[in-house]
Amino acid sequence: MKLFHLTPAACLFLIGCSTASEVQPLSSTDEDPINRARVEGYVFQPERIDATDARVAELSVPDGFTIGKFAEDMGKPRMLAVREDGTVYVTRRGGDIYMLRDTDGDGKADSREQVFEMKNIHGLELRGDELYMVAVNEVLKTRLQSDGTFGPIDTVATKFPEGGQHNNRTLAFGPDDKLYVSVGSTCNACAETNDENATLVQMNADGSERKIFAKGLRNTIGFDWHPETGVLYGLDHGIDWLGDDAQKEELNMLEEGKHYGWPYIYGDGHYNPADEPEEGFDAFEKKVTDPVMTYTAHSAPLDMIFYRGDQFPLTYRNDAIVTMRGSWNRSEPSGYKIVRIEFDDNGKPVAFHDFATGWLRNNDQQQMGRLVGLAEMPDGSLLATDDTNGVIYRIAYGKSSR
């Protein structure tokens, strides 16, 4: 393999240019007065292969669990919301929302209908009969009709900043009945010009009293509140181009007014070698809150939900389930799986465990799925979307979903 010596800016340019199927190492040995670290990165994406029924049958889940296709041929499905009657809503990267139903209870959707179209529509959140939706610049809502279709569309909030590198917004209501919106950074690592970029924004359900809740979050797409403690946790995407093992993905306990380090500080006090704050690292670090746990770099955590159902074994109750969409900036792939974050009896996270694996195949040279959205069904089973093969998976315990 040929090693390229490039500046961090050149590395960023190559993100959008490389389509290689083999590992391409990229690095920089440029030194500054602090001489902090070597910047190095790789481009490697496993080849996509179809999620055939035979391959899906080889996916691995814990004993007693089953996994199968709830729906397929869905294009590029992303985020999910599920009503109490089991009606499923899913956004698609093409810019629309589909409604799906399993009318005969066999664990597979047998009806689907497009119910809404809008460019960059992404995150969904149900609040009673109202469905909240977020695109890059605005939050919308609709009252769902008796047949599940949309009523008139109302605007809740506007003038969110442009997305740049991270335009996939998500939203959720907290135990305080406030609406929280994740607004990613516009870049890999930079000083943002809009204060709302790289934040979690809080507002009332009608969009009033909008404010920045937490800062320094590069792209926290998945976040949720512990069902018993009410503590808010989120998984943040680490900075690219820091090598195979940095920056690790961060599980943060998100609290009002806190800063979580991006773009200058990551992990337990590591300095980003490519960027330095105006006040210097030492001064900046004093206002940064460290993550509570970290996970393999470049795994790309997408959705995160706490399991609240009663279908799974009791040991899963109040644990978090996370989709790891998978790396592109690592010589050996990471992610491409669903993981479980174990929480102890005091509501503290203690360990990451594999939950559903097998999307990486052929010695990690091929992948048959990149997992994105999660939702819990009324019966306690889980749905997970794959936006590369157009599949929505269903994971159940004690009942066949194959």
TrEMBL record:
It comes from the Bacteria. Residues 60-395 form the Pyrroloquinoline quinone-dependent pyranose dehydrogenase beta-propeller domain. InterPro entries: 6-blade_b-propeller_TolB-like (IPR011042), Beta-prop_PDH (IPR054539), Quinoprot_gluc/sorb_DH_b-prop (IPR011041). It holds the Pfam family TrAA12. Residues 1-20 form the signal peptide. Keywords: Signal. This is Glucose/arabinose dehydrogenase. It comes from Neolewinella xylanilytica.
